[in-house]
Amino acid sequence: MDMLVVLTVLIVVFALAFDFINGFHDTANAIATSVSTRALPPRVAVLMAAVMNFLGAITFTGVAKAITKDIVDPFALENGALVILAALISAIIWNLATWYFGIPSSSSHAIIGSIAGAAITAAGFGILNYSGFIKIVQALILSPIIAIAMGFLVMTLFKFIFRKATLSKTNRRIRILQIGTAAIQSFTHGTNDAQKTMGIMTMALIAAGWQSSDDIQMWVRVAAATAMGLGTSIGGYKIIKTVGGKIMKLRPVNGAAADLASASVIFGATLIHLPVSTTHVISSSIMGVGSAQRVKGVKWGVARKIVLTWIITMPSVAILSALIYWLLDLFF
């Protein structure tokens, strides 16, 4: 029992560390467009994102419940504490590595793939909740495609609305609009991304026998929201540079269109309790916006590298978490 208590405390600490890292890793994507177009100074954008992420994180719990029960059944998982700890360590390593190299990788893919890899190592492929897991994977695959389409549509609409406006006046007006769209983007990020950590912490409480339902306790919600808000306040300027400038050259109208498109996709997923990758959605919406303006204006070489990272994340972290679980199992 003492060892179980130690493991559960470690899981909570690592879960909050994951959320903190997620804050400066993924939230950078949410404010990348507004910083790159100079609608907001970096420090102001980061502080605003921190507040809006916190508010978004404590408002909803549907995605957290999906993470708790849709990947594996926490009530049927033996060695659940070791599985969750291995998954967290794996996801943290992956997030730090991709952040260091400035690659907008997905924290969602990292944690979901890590949970699956460690759980399969512990209990075999039968432990997966296939209906829930497939639903989550489908959302992760389809959301970037929907975001590209939304980015294209919103940018096409903006081109029609501002077709008679002069460029300088349009830029001034759009920069003001972008402050609002960046705030909305950060809020929706909190409604989806922070809940993944809440779900993991709830899994740990169930595995320890300290909770008998998948309800998300208030202290879990506040702790996860606070960790993400603090992480956001540090910022992630390497990711901002990649998302905000290396996919395409952004103007204020492009940034506002991308923000509105991606925020609508992320919030739509939150309302139907599906975790999606905010990184994928935001990057894809920028590609859609660029395609609506000029297909050749999108730097598809950079886009291909991002897509490649998307593809390799889940299998890579699954293998990594399996190895970490094996080592933890030997140790404990």
Automatic annotation (TrEMBL):
Cellular compartment(s): Membrane
Q: Where are the transmembrane segments?
A: 46-68, 80-102, 108-128, 140-162, 218-240, 306-328
MF annotations from Gene Ontology: phosphate transmembrane transporter activity
Print the keywords alphabetically.
Answer: Membrane, Transmembrane, Transmembrane helix, Transport
Which Pfam families does the protein's record reference? PHO4 (PF01384)
Q: Which GO terms describe its biological process?
A: phosphate ion transmembrane transport
- Lineage: superkingdom: Bacteria
Q: How does it sit in the membrane?
A: Multi-pass membrane protein
The record, for InterPro entries, names: Phos_transporter
Chief localization class? membrane
Cellular component GO terms held in the UniProt record: membrane
This protein's name: Inorganic phosphate transporter, PiT family
- Provide the species name: Edaphobacillus lindanitolerans
Q: What is the lineage of its organism?
A: Bacteria, Bacillati, Bacillota, Bacilli, Bacillales
